Amino acid sequence: MNNLKASTFAIVLVLLAAPLAGCLDNSPSGEISGDEYNGTPLASGNAGDFSLIDRDNSNFSLSSLKGNITVVNFIFTSCPDVCPLDTSKLRTASNELGDDIKFVSITMDPGFDNVSRLAEYSETHGADWPHLTGSPEQLEDVWSDFGIRVNKSYDEEMEHFNSLSILHPTPINQVSVLNPDNSSSIYFSADSSLSSNETGWNLTTAAFNANNISYNYTTNEQWSHGMTEIDGFGSPSDSSWWWKLLVWNASNSSWEDSQVGIDSIEVNSSTQIAWVANNSNFSLLSPPLHFREGGYVKSHSVAFETLPDDASGWNLTSAVFDDANISYNFTYHEQWGHGSSMIDNKQSPSDGSWWWKLYSWNATNAAWEEAMVGIDSVEVGNTTHLAWAANYSDVSLIPSPVDAMSHEGMDQSMGNESMDHTMGHGETNYTIIHNAVIYILDEEHDKRLAYIGSGWSSENLIEDAQTLQSETIGEETVPALGLVMTLIAGLGAVIITNRRLTE
Question: Which of 75, 145, 235, 349 is 20 to 30 A (C-alpha) from 243?
């Protein structure tokens, strides 16, 4: 299972002379002398406007910076050398120039560079300015405006891999119920479904509503909400019994009478409550489930060719588990076939309060959906993607198959529903090749200067930005033919090859 075929993904970026030459029309007026600048002077027209998405997931328009000298560069976050080097030099220039000079970075790899990756990149490199992404169509327009042509070439093998994701049990708060006849049940609500500063009453209603449990209550000025009926068990008007509130004491591992009303209970990750009929046998009330580890995702891919002919979802599941050394136990039912009872040391309880549930990836809707057949009836094709998750889990936390496989190997607890923590196995290689260029726009956002390659310094850019900011522009226009010749000569001057291995 380890001889997986490499999948290759390539982005080729070339700066072509023809698009730039076409931009020489409608060029800014002014006498542009190369002697007074360190960068290559331009007369290639106005940068126009565009609207993309910033690293904080908000809309950003280039026109919002009009009136400021603006530095524009193009990056991709998986770049191993030139992009981080340029970003470092731009950071030095930004710190020196202050707020009067603006900086913008635009991705060249929108398929990979989502807002979270751009945010991580900018934070890692201390680049506190807009880092932008968008749809391929939006970015193609921007690249075209700046005379940049991006060609993508995919290896067909990338389309032929199967993956299996595992979403472990996420933290839960539980509401236990012990009825007058001593029957009991446990209802839960994922922590992520509750906002901050929630109360025990919020937890109660969230758990009951999530499980379609009927209930009635009263309100009292002193005690606020009080339960009168749960799932058909209504306390009688003669008060021969009533619903009593208990809380779980983790230190003593026991249920205790609550010393405050349900509205005064502050819910945190360890909060567990119980509603019990006061005439029931409290010793029959089960302790809370002990699956409070931080939820996280593991993902593993296998090449389609490594699976047997007519492979089923169970073949894919067991192949992944065996290859990744993931422990598992299963049950077998004559009608439904195999079912997972334990995955990666997480055993579903015998009382059925939660269980491992099967999901499949719907490529048309780009969403995980509950599997409508048993695992043995799932037919594995070239691109079958499955997921096992605790039945109460938030399925939106499972990454798409492409996102799951794009990470380097990690096995970490998730924080705040972040999907950045996954585990990848197998091999995913891709190569990015491009020429590097940085533009300086004047206050009207006319393209005035360019830095090509990586041989420029932050001191050069600082000096040019300050010169451009302070000078008065004349009326004559001089086309920057030197830039065209430089680009032709420099095509391929900066070649970056990045091989990403996920194992």
Answer: 349
